[in-house]
């Protein structure tokens, strides 16, 4: 990671595109902060699903939000096609950190960080990280140098 705060990783592990919908627009006629958080959630779920994980756990280790930090750099508007780059970092025994960069046509719209804990929703308690979690998430783009 570069610097402190919301520094970005040298390499991202996953990329997906999202489009700003009418429901995402606030009174300022741009992407609302609540909708921005929903975009982060959608991107994270897509990545986890591509790696064969269910955020809810599906009988094992799910994920629960512990911290969220967002830094806005530009506005986004209805129908904008946004590119979301993501990386996993700060991996611990029972938590991990996701870093996000959302941009549009070469311009950064926002960057974010979520600290997620591994959680068993059935037992309502924290659990250890699945042994193959990092491998499965990062293997998706092993052959992609530009992500």
From TrEMBL:
Domain of life the protein comes from: Bacteria
One matching Pfam family: 4HBT_2
Segments traversing the membrane: none
CDD domains, per the entry: 4HBT
Tagged with keyword Zinc: no
One Gene Ontology term of the molecular function aspect: fatty acyl-CoA hydrolase activity
InterPro entries registered for this protein in UniProt: 4-hydroxybenzoyl-CoA_TE, HotDog_dom_sf
Alphabetical keyword list: Hydrolase
Keyword Magnesium: no
Family to which the UniProt record says this protein belongs: Belongs to the 4-hydroxybenzoyl-CoA thioesterase family.
PANTHER family reported for this sequence: 4-HYDROXYBENZOYL-COA THIOESTERASE FAMILY MEMBER, NOVEL THIOESTERASE SUPERFAMILY DOMAIN AND SAPOSIN A-TYPE DOMAIN CONTAINING PROTEIN (0610012H03RIK)
Name of the protein this chain belongs to: Thioesterase
UniProt source species: Immundisolibacter cernigliae
